Amino acid sequence: SNTPLPSSQTLLRCRELRSAIVSPFKMTIIIEQPQFDAAAERKVAGDPAELVLDGGFTVPDSNAFGHTFRDYDAESERKKTVEEFYSVNHINQTYEFVQRMRDAYGRLDKTEMSIWECIELLNEFIDDSDPDLDMPQIEHLLQTAEAIRKDYPDEDWLHLTGLIHDLGKVLLHPSFGELPQWAVVGDTFPVGCAFDECNVHSKYFKENPDYHNPEFNTKFGAYSEGCGLDKVLMSWGHDDYMYLVAKENKTTLPSAGLFIIRYHSFYPLHKHGAYTHLMNEEDKENLKWLHVFK
Description:
By secondary structure, the protein is mostly helical. The protein is built from eleven helices and no strands. It has one domain (8-54, 78-293). It has helices spanning 8-22, 38-41, 79-92, 95-105, 115-121, 137-151, 156-164, 238-248, 255-263, 267-270, 281-293. The protein is globular, with a radius of gyration of 19 Å. The two termini are 30 Å apart. The relative contact order is 0.15. Mean pLDDT is 81; it is low at 1-31, 45-60 and 62-70. GO terms for molecular function: inositol oxygenase activity; iron ion binding.
């Protein structure tokens, strides 16, 4: 293999992360909401969704396939797989389906395991919806946590959020029901209201039953202006599942951490500014931290 081996420094940091997970008392997680101060704001420049790394990791100019990031039209070995994924996802993610999944998985009765056991479980899976990465999820989680730790050393709650944000992908595993990828990964979007055209491969929504349902195909649909995103049903997947797990287990992560977990795949919002009419004031504050995270 031509893949470079991780440095001893990287391995040491991975061991530090593992130690912090296995022995949770070694990591201090604040309960109160963190302040989005001037130092954090300086790292979000120009495009508010763009993270500027301050003396930390260098963001590459292209993805693993030599293309710009999140270019769903670029010819690559993953283009067909990704588009097929979104066609099935957009057709089947309905308001009724999400309600059914939340009812079934909100009981949290599948199995019980530690955070590190979940992380190791994800070593088997590659995200079919991602046009940029073909690495196992365990690598993605460790890289995310380490990048955040390097750029925001004092925000320990954010380090942990980065480490666990994708743990909901265990839904792909037999222990958690072995759901198909279209019900686990991919960009998320609200259900119960009109599908915005900025959604990736939005043309496939025309085959979604809710697209033709007058109760759900208007701007507000089942919701009201400024109702708050916590009142909005999102397409079902790992984001919402991990949010439910953290919330029901009385996590001490601040609301910004929960916001990042539930909406980190909500690209129509944090990349394109869609669906802001559903946000309340707390959402707007938490979105600042999501921009930092992304």
